[in-house]
């Protein structure tokens, strides 16, 4: 949920004309991450949970790309970009590890 909060804080500084563009896309991707983790946790099986973690991971990569775009457009300074990307990379690693831990051993 930290990355969602960070995303909302960053998007609040974007130009108003981005409200229905990049801001909307970034907020949706950011909210998707904890939402899919929560939904997966509420499912009855490790297989279902793993699938929702996969969706959350995809959203994390999507959000990383959108942060890079926001920086390219001049909406974020280097410090905010690096903070966001650092958090996202750590989250991606955690999601991957968690997903692997749910897979059955062969």
UniProtKB/TrEMBL annotation:
<protein>
    <submittedName>
        <fullName>Four helix bundle protein</fullName>
    </submittedName>
</protein>
<dbReference type="Pfam" id="PF05635">
    <property type="entry name" value="23S_rRNA_IVP"/>
</dbReference>
<dbReference type="InterPro" id="IPR036583">
    <property type="entry name" value="23S_rRNA_IVS_sf"/>
</dbReference>
<dbReference type="InterPro" id="IPR012657">
    <property type="entry name" value="23S_rRNA-intervening_sequence"/>
</dbReference>
